[in-house]
Amino acid sequence: MEKHIILITGEPRCGKSTLINLVRSKLITSMKIGGIICTQINNDLQERIGFQANYYASRNYYPLSCELAKINLCNKQEFESSEYIRFRKYLVNVSNIKNFIVPAIKNSILTEEIIILDEIAHMQLLCQDFKECIENELFDSKKLGIVTISEELYNSNEKFVEKLKSLSLGLFYLKSSVNFEQIINDIDNLISDFIKENLC
User: Fold this and answer.
1) What's the CA gap between 26 and 101, in Å, rounded?
2) What would the pLDDT profile of 49-76 be if each residue is shown by its tens digit?
3) 8: closest CA among 193, 189, 164?
4) φ, ψ for residue 194 (rounded to 5)?
5) Does residue 84 sit in helix, strand or coil?
6) Cross-strand bridge partners of residue 35
7) From CA 124, how far away is CA 158, in angstroms rounded?
8) What SS3 state is found at 146?
């Protein structure tokens, strides 16, 4: 199968989401690029209390958003809800993953030239529909994808991850002191090479 995915991984809070959003911002005027970018939700003290998923369609500045996960506050009624699965200190909204994130990814594969997916991690894989969407839609697609994956999952032995690695055009490992400008240029070059090869 043709390699068509650019992978980004790295330490927690190293800037994976920031980087993929910068790439999107650079390409948005020249290409149809869209997909999911996850951001953290902070309280008034700027402490992280959860995550949200933002769906960007091409050339749209403002995304549609939904809750991905929130800190588990031990609300028994909420925990027993079919919407949530406990993952470490979070309650993961598997209903939103299934009914918002998965359709957004599928729509992006249908309508965009470049699909962005931030991120693939253990939290998202709690939803079987998400994993199947990646395996059956993104892996089999001929569209170029830019995907972030958690360092923990990237270093695992999951067959799912080995398949993802086998489709990689290039891997970028981020650290907190990374030079984003250089990496953005390198990703831009990979995209240009991919487009040229697929036009031939």
Assistant:
1) 23
2) 999 999 999 867 778 999 999 997 765 5
3) 164
4) -65, -45
5) strand
6) 56, 116
7) 14
8) strand
For residue 19, which amino acid is it? L
Question: Given a cut of 80, is residue 11 above it in pLDDT?
Answer: yes
Longest dimension (CA), the chain: 58
* CA–CA dist 16, 99 (Å, integer): 24
Judged against a pLDDT cut of 90, whether residue 78 lies above it is answered with no
Confidence of residue 45 (pLDDT cuts 50, 70, 90): confident
Among 100, 110, 105, 192, CA closest to 143:
110
**Nearest 5°: phi and psi at 25?**
-65, -35
- Beta strand 5-10 pairing with 144-149: parallel
Collapsing DSSP states into helix, strand and coil, what is residue 44? coil
Residue 32 has which token pair? 């149809």
H-assigned helices in 3-101: 16-27, 76-79, 94-96
